């Protein structure tokens, strides 16, 4: 229950952060795409710094969640980030969600509950053998390089979708490294944690994923970014949990409700991303109307 609670808090914090970061990213010109100067431009905006503050809160909550529960349980809960983003934005903007919003929220929620009940992840270890990280990091790097290379050859929503999936992979890797790093607290306390390479790899992967997400949010709409980010993070995290940590999922006929749950979550994410509330939340503020001549 502790891991589920902190996973929900992580999703809420990330949801609020997404609204603020998207606001800031929309104000950066396209010429800054995939450049370090993009971060320099964002650093000058208070709204982006507030979003980063919430990202830090989310990272702390995620660390607690991963330290107390399997990665295949914790990470899929983050699919509620999208409905949380829209509901928080609607509350802040005092805009009531329409039927499509509530349909999307219900689809994501029911799909998540069905998926977790069907998969029922169990077992697994808290640590990963260092030798197992080598092929995992190599394959992840090749996958990320392929996505980024393809994104650089496109523009608009296709680029946003590819970079959103690349960011999702980065966040999933961050979670896996963080869980492995947190296991050192039980073995040797804070000194063992600070001495582990996984801790610093977590920071590097997290910064890289954040950079990719800012570029995805700048390149296209939420319709393109969020479904890839949400579903990609959940599915890749489950893969890391099974392959690296030895967590087990139900198979056999249980695959049918698991696929149904995935379809519900995907439909809900796409429906939410297409709602007017999502477009309004993430659109740049309108310019002031010109004053009438006197």
Please describe the topology of this protein:
Layout: H1 2-25, H2 37-43, H3 46-68, H4 71-74, H5 81-93, H6 99-119, H7 130-152, H8 156-182, H9 184-195, H10 197-219, H11 222-243, H12 255-273, H13 276-282
Structure in words:
With 294 residues, this protein is mostly helical. Helices cover 77% and strands 0% of the residues. The protein is built from 13 helices and no strands. It has helices at 2-25, 37-43, 46-68, 71-74, 81-93, 99-119, 130-152, 156-182, 184-195, 197-219, 222-243, 255-273, 276-282. Helix 3 crosses helix 8.
Beta-strand segment tally: 0
Largest sheet: none
Measured as a percent range, the helix fraction is over 70%
Mean pLDDT over the residues = 79
Name a few traits of the molecule.
mainly alpha; 294 residues
In short:
Helices cover 77% and strands 0% of the residues. With 294 residues, the chain is an all-alpha fold.
């Amino acid at each position: 229950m502790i891991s589920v609670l902190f996973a929900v808090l992580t999703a809420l914090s990330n949801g609020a952060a997404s609204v603020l970061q998207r606001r800031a990213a929309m104000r950066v010109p396209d010429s800054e795409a995939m450049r370090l100067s993009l971060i320099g431009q964002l650093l000058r905006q208070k709204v982006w710094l507030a979003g980063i503050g919430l990202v830090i809160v989310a990272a702390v909550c995620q660390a607690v969640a991963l330290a107390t529960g399997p990665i295949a349980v914790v990470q899929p809960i983050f699919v509620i980030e999208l409905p949380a983003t829209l509901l928080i934005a609607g509350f802040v903007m005092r805009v009531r969600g329409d039927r499509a919003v509530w349909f999307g929220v219900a689809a994501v929620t029911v799909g998540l509950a069905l998926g977790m009940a069907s998969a029922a992840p169990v077992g697994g270890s808290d640590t990963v053998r260092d030798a197992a990280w080598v092929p995992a990091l190599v394959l992840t790097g090749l996958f990320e390089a392929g996505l980024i290379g393809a994104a650089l050859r496109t523009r608009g929503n296709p680029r946003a979708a590819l970079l959103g999936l690349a960011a999702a992979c980065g966040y999933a890797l961050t979670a896996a490294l963080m869980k492995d790093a947190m296991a050192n607290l039980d073995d040797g306390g804070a000194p063992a944690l600070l001495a582990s390479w996984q801790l610093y790899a977590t920071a590097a992967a997290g910064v890289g994923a954040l950079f990719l997400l800012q570029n995805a949010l700048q390149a296209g709409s939420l319709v393109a970014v969020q479904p890839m980010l949400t579903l990609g993070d959940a599915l890749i995290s489950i893969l890391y949990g099974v392959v690296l940590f030895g967590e087990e999922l139900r198979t056999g006929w249980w695959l049918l409700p698991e696929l149904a749950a995935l379809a519900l979550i995907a439909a809900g994410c796409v429906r939410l991303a297409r709602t007017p509330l999502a477009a309004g939340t993430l659109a740049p503020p309108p310019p002031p109307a010109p004053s009438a001549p006197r």
